[in-house]
Amino acid sequence: MTDIVDEIRGAYASVGITLDHPATYGTYYRLLCTGCSRIVGNVGDKLLPGMAATLVDQQFDLYAAGLVGCACGHQQERTRALDPERWAAARRRYASAGGAA
Amino acid sequence: MSETRAREMQVIDDAEARGRTELWPFWRRVYAEGDPLPQLTCTVSRPTYRFDENEPLPEEYKALLLRMLRHEGERAGNKSFLGLMASCLDLAETIFPTAEAKLLKAEYLAEELKHGIMFHRLAVGLDRSFALRDVPYAHYAFHLPRETWADDAMFHFFVDLNGAFHSRDWRESSYVPLQKMAATVERDELGHSEMGYYFLRQICAEAKGHLVAQHLLAKWYPAALDMFGRSDSPNVPKFIQWGLKSVGNAEIRTAYKRYVDRKIAALGLDVPDERQNRRFL
To answer: A98–B207: do the CB atoms touch at under 8 Å?
Structure first.
C-alpha cells in the first residue's frame, strides 16, 4: 500500500466512496459507493501527492447537487454532513440544471 | 512483406471492415474533410538517420527509443496497458448512457488491442526482453478518477488525442518500423478522440451535462497540457537529433492546445486558463 493510495482512500472516504481492492493487474482501483457498494468509477495509483484530496474537494458541489455520485444519494448525504452550508449553496446553484431537489 | 504476413494483415483489415457503421470508425469522416492535424516540422539542423529492424542501433538511440516506447505503453505484453483497458471496460459496463455508447466503447477497445499487437511486434523486433515488461503509465493523466461518462469522454478526447499528435510526429521517425505504423496509429487515436468528442457533444447538449463538463474541464485540461512534459526537458534535443522526434515539448503542446481550444469552444464551454492547476510547465 503506497502513501498515494492511502491519500486516495482517505479523500474518497470523506464523501462516502470506498476505494476497492486493485482491479485486474493492479494500478487501477474501482470506486464503490459506500452506501450501496455499486461501482461509481475508477482511479489509478499514480496521482501526484495531494492531488486526490484536491480533486475530491473540487467535486464537492457536484456530489452535493447529485450531478456526480451514486444514484442512491449516499454522496449527497455525506457532503451534507460534511459541510451543510456549502451543500445548500451548491444545491441552490445547480437547481436550475436539474441537479438538486 | 511475406505472403503469410500479408494474409494475416488482411484478416485484421477484414475484421475492421465488418465493424464499420455510420459512426465507427470516427476518423473516417474527419480525414475525408482533409488532414485534421497540424504539420510538425523540424526546424533545427540535424543528421539524417534511418534504422530498420535487425540493424545494430547506437546505444543512446536505443535507450531513447525504449524510453519513448515505455511512455507509449500500448503493448500486448504490458500488464498495465491491459489493466487500463480493463478500467475502460468497467466504466463501459457500469456507467454507459446508451447501448450505442457501450458498443462504441467495445470498438474502441478492439482497436486499442490491435495497437497492443502492433507495438508488441515492434518491441520484439527491437529488444525481446522489453516485450513482456510491465510498465505502469507514469503520467498522472492516465490515473485521474473517472466517475461520470463526461470524465470518460474527456479522457478519450484529450488523452487519445495526445497519442494522435505523437503518432503524427512518428511519421518522420528515423526508426522505420515505427514510421511505418505511425499513420495507422495516428488515424485510430484521432478517431478515439473524436469518439470522446461525440460523447461530449451529447453531454453538453443538456444543461446538466454542460455544467458537469465545464466543472470537469478544470481536472482534464491541465492534465492534457501537462502530458507533453516540461518545455525545458533536457532529453528533447537528443530525441530530435536522432530523428525520434521532430519538435520540442513546447511546440507540440502549443499545436495541441490550439486544436483542443477550438473544439472546447465549439461545445460552448469556456477554455480554462492554461496555467491553472498545471504541474509540468
So the answer is: yes
pLDDT digits (tens, 9 = 90+) for B12-65: 788 888 888 889 999 999 999 999 999 999 999 999 999 999 899 999 999 999
Instruction: List, as own/partner pairs, every contact residues B79-83 make where C-beta atoms lie below 8 angstroms and the sequence separation is at least 24, other chains included.
Output: B79/A25, B79/A26, B79/B134, B80/A25, B80/A26, B80/A27, B80/B134, B80/B135, B80/B136, B80/B137, B81/B116, B82/A24, B82/A25, B82/B116, B83/A23, B83/A24, B83/A25, B83/A26, B83/A27, B83/A28
- Tell me the C-alpha to C-alpha distance, in Å, between residue B277 and each of A54, B101, B198, B250, B273: 10, 31, 26, 17, 9
Rounded CA separation B135/B79 (Å): 8
Phi, psi of B270 (to 5 degrees): -80, 130
Which range marks the domain in which residue A37 is found?
3-94
ipTM, two decimals, is 0.95
Whether residue A8 is contained in a domain is answered as: yes
Q: Confirm or reject contact between A72 and chain B (CB < 8 A).
A: no
Measure the CA–CA gap between A67 and A88, rounded to whole angstroms.
14
Q: Bridge partners of A43?
A: A29
Tell if the CB–CB gap between B143 and A69 is shorter than 8 Å.
no
Domain assignment of residue A31, yes or no: yes
Query: Does residue A100 fall inside a structural domain?
Result: no
Torsion of CA A75, A76, A79, A84, to 10 degrees: -170
Task: Compute CA distances B231 → B74, B160, B228, whole Å.
Answer: 24, 21, 8
Q: Give the count of domains, chain A.
A: 1
CB contacts of A38 in chain B (<8 Å) are 94
Q: Does residue A101 sit within a domain?
A: no
